[in-house]
Automatic annotation (TrEMBL):
This is sn-glycerol-3-phosphate-binding periplasmic protein UgpB. Belongs to the bacterial solute-binding protein 1 family. It is found in: Periplasm. PANTHER family: ARABINOSE-BINDING PROTEIN-RELATED, SN-GLYCEROL-3-PHOSPHATE-BINDING PERIPLASMIC PROTEIN UGPB. GO terms for cellular component: periplasmic space. Part of the ABC transporter complex UgpBAEC involved in sn-glycerol-3-phosphate (G3P) import. Binds G3P. It comes from Antarcticimicrobium sediminis. The gene is ugpB. InterPro entries: Bact_solute-bd_prot1 (IPR050490), SBP (IPR006059). The complex is composed of two ATP-binding proteins (UgpC), two transmembrane proteins (UgpA and UgpE) and a solute-binding protein (UgpB). Keywords: Signal, Transport.
Amino acid sequence: MTFKTILTATTALAIAAPAFAADKAQVQFWHAMGGELGTIVDKFATDYNAGSETCQINAIYKGNYTENMTAAIAAFRAGEQPHVVQVFEVGTATMMAAEDKGAVYPVYKLMQDAGVDFDQSAYLPAVISYYTDTDDNLLSLPFNSSTPVMWYNKTALDAAGVAVPTTWDEVEAAARALKANGVEKPFSMGWQSWTQIENFSAWHNIPMASEENGFASLKTEFTFNNDAVVNHIQRIADMGKEGLFGYGGRRGDSRGMFVNGETALWINSSGYYGGFKTDIKDFEFGQTMLPLETSVADAPQNSIIGGATLWVLNGHQSDEYKCVAEFFQYLSQPEQQAFWHQNTGYVPITTAAYELSKEQGFYETDPGTDTAIKQLSLNAPTPNSKGIRFGNFVQARDVINEELEAVWAGDKTAREALDAAVKRGNALLRKFEDANS
């Protein structure tokens, strides 16, 4: 099914039915999925509503991840919170603290209270471990999970006579050949803290912070100003001076640079696949695993996830929470998850959805689309590669962004910027610890 077909069908249903069914329990679901992703989210809600006699899920787009989370927090303080809010992975520690204060209805308890079948072991370990408490209870429902991959313009690489790079030395060499062959800004990336610090560290099995990257306690302190990360960031800065790297923004702002051929090697989320299939017409593209810095590690460890989960907020009626539980069960079914995975590039959150995608021949017709899954499950996670859990990390990422932008602009060395980012970031960690101890 194409996005156009989905959009047409969803629009037709929306016209045919009222926005709110008066005789159904109403559930407000605030999400951060715009464009084609939002179309699929709307489809899931519409399809579920059509099959339920008692529940109405109202999926509402509230802006990007930060805007959606901020809106939900403000709504909760005003007593007008939604039932479900989509929160990106860096908001996990903040939401866990909110759970401790009674604002969150943990998913494991929601499903138990609603009497809805729920098997936590059905979920991919690399995904679910990120969102469980110390007793292995699931706090929020994994929904759109991704990991960064390296997207490449195969047509441009072939024209430049270079193979798909697998190491950072090869990335630099390929960028030089691409530049010589007319590619304006051969290498770029998005979500730079996530891709170039958080995942670079996990991929090379080095800690980003103490206390098992924040999983062990709130006393965690950042350590990403180590030699490995500093040298890596300085390499990218030096590539920029040579015209081999072009910075395009903090989130997915540089996506257009890859789509229009200005950039041929782009590190960002696997979740861009669906949009690329629709938008890229002039060249052949692919995705491959993250490059290895051979001076740091002999082999990669595993990447860590990004994306978001669905958190349930307290303060509503039991019949409405029953609907939330049933909707979560519906979203987790293999058919929905396989559809989501195949049309977006996000990883399937359950083993069954992965197996269904294999049975349907998806990885044969769309080669490379299992790259994210392979990266996440490459090795058993270590304390350095299980993930990250930092309080105030939304703000800390802004600090990291500011400091990295100073590097790209030539105003600071990588050492100066990362030392400053660690110092400023640690102040935010202590502020969070003080407020939640």
